[in-house]
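User: Structure please.
Assistant: Input sequence and predicted structure:
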Amino acid sequence: MSKSFADTTVLDGLDLDIPRQNVVTVIGPSGSGKSTLLRILDFLEHADSGTVDFGDGLVDLTTTKSADIHKVRSKIGFVFQNYNLFLNKTALQNVTEPLVYSKGIKPDEARKIAIEQLDRVGLADFHDRYPSTLSGGQQQRVSIARAVAMNPELLVLDEPTSALDPEMVNGVLGVIKQLGSEGMTMLMVTHEMRFAYEASNHVVFIEGGHVVEQGDPKRIFEHPQEERTVEFLSSTNNVLMIPVTR
């Protein structure tokens, strides 16, 4: 995948594999191309070149064909930084209506699925609440329930805790960690190094639009091989309390 804005290269031939039933977490400094990677996967941006393959054939990420875009989007559940909930809909309606209008599921069945997913993220008592009456952490859990209810092959999370107050972070991260333990395939961008360390199967450090280093979280965080990885993690591991050695 490659992408430039004017004279700035944001993604420089980036290649990435996401094994099924794994949590792959992308880390890196601001401006390294992390969010652009995710936005291209959802066709919120078009790549200059690149493809994606869910195992049933390549899709050109530069395409404007609605059928190809729908093919990719139907396989991805997206969780955004700022929730993107309908403010005039209850939590239950926010999860139910995409099932009805995007997947053609009958309303009664959609409601049943929505209730199960809201309960799954710890919101059993909040079905009839509007977003304005929910905390940021609760709104993000509604967003996660909405994405998971669509039964995606890949759940993509773009810094899902970045808009939350510190005390709300653990509840959302707990939900994501639980989904990972249940076999949900996830691609996540996060600045939460502790969570990346504990919940990921694979960590990818990118900078300058390409992969600098990737591997098992324990090796990446405790024994990185690249000097730039060491520098980046040394600036963040004061929170982790993990010694970085090569």
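The chain has a mean pLDDT of 91.
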